Each structure stands twice: as C-alpha cells, then as structure tokens.
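hey can u check if this looks right to u? its 133 residues, i copy pasted from the old doc so theres a chance i mangled smth
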Amino acid sequence: MNTDFIGSGWAFPVGVDSTGRIALSSGDADLEQAIQLILRTYPGERPMRWEFGSRLRDHIFDGTGGDTAAAIRADVQSALARWEPRITVTDVEVEPDPDQPGLLYIDIRYTVKATNDSRNLVFPFYTIPDGDN
C-alpha cells in the first residue's frame, strides 16, 4: 500500500512508543483510526474545528429499529465524505446484534483512493434500548 499518500499521524489514542516519543500510526492503521476518530467526535468538541466529527451520538436513545439504522447510515456516510478525503465510502450497513439489545454493528465499506484497495471497518455502536426494539 502506498503509505506516502495515506501518510502517518499520531496514534489514537495518543500514547508514547518504546523510545518515549509520541506514537505514530501509518497506512491502514492510520486510516482506521481516522475513521473511528471522526465517528467518535461530536461536532463542537474541538475548539478550533467546531464542525468536525459526526452526529452519531444523536442516536443513542433511538433504539435499534430500521429508522435508526437508516439515520445512522446517512450520518456516517456524510461525516466520512466530509472529513476523510483519502477514502470513498462505497456502502454502510447497520445491523443489530441479535444477542445484545442496544448494540448495532456499523459495517463501513470503503475504497482507498490512492490504491483503489477495497476495505471495511466494523464499528460497534451502543444505544440505550427502550424495550420496544
């Protein structure tokens, strides 16, 4: 994979490596961490980038029904299209875990623009079940 295009950045969560320097990630790991960071950051949390992030947390109390899945799908696609220019999101599927009420699996399928490499990332998202779902 062409890591020059993808680049490298601080690892997430921020930490130190064995030499005591800031730990870095690169390549596929850097992309996956960037996607997770976008989805875990709520707009307004970053003082210098108020719009950065996704509105995924708006759905914590929405349950796991079909309307919630559709809204989550749209929010994920929108946030990644805006904030992660190194990828093209090809599909987002949202499925509830049959054994854990309140848990949704967000399967993000994307293509790395530099290499045309198809990849996927499964992101767990927890909701507060309301008893009706």
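The CA atoms of residues 71 and 95 lie 13 Å apart.
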